[in-house]
Amino acid sequence: MVLLSFEADAALLPRKIGVCSETFVKEINYRLASVDANEVYIPVPGSGSSITFTNGGYQVSYETVGAIHRSRRDDKVRMCLIFIPDCSHARPSDKRGRVYRTTNLRTSESWTLPDSQHSCGGA
Questions:
Q1: CA–CA dist 46, 59 (Å, integer)
Q2: Which residues 6+ apart lie within 8 Å of 43 measured at CB?
């Protein structure tokens, strides 16, 4: 018997503007969370949205994005790279600030968000 995982089917993140790849939703959260005395993760509703994908992709917003919160774990999505910031002033390893247009293929809803709260060279 062969077991396939969604992660095995997820394409890598696009590296060039205009290139798209398909992957799956791994986790949906609010932007912020706290941890209680028992080390329990407590999401902070109203703090914005964050979403993680099985290809290692991540998107975040200071605003709550309804389309993200209507998505479900394992939904198939198409991520298209639409912007790469000029990071010539930042450390070579700092690649933050790439912006992706993501479409949930189950709901047909889309959102456009960066991969970090700050761009390269930022906080």
A1: 16
A2: 29, 30, 32, 33
Q: Which of 27, 64, 70 is nearest to 45 (CA)?
A: 64
The rounded distance, in Å, linking the Cα atoms of 41 and 28 is 13
What is the pTM for the complete model shown? 0.84
Domain boundaries, the chain: 6-114
Instruction: Name 105's Cβ contacts closer than 8 Å, sequence gap at least 6.
Output: 22, 75, 76, 77, 78
Name beta bridge partners: 27. 52
* Strand-pair category, 41-43 with 49-53: unpaired
> Using one digit for the tens of pLDDT, what is the confidence trace for 26-80?
999 998 888 888 888 888 888 899 999 999 999 999 999 999 999 999 999 999 9
Q: Per residue in 53-87, is it b (16+ CB within 10 Å) or e — as a string? A: bbbebbbbbeeebebbeebeeebbbbbbbeeebeb
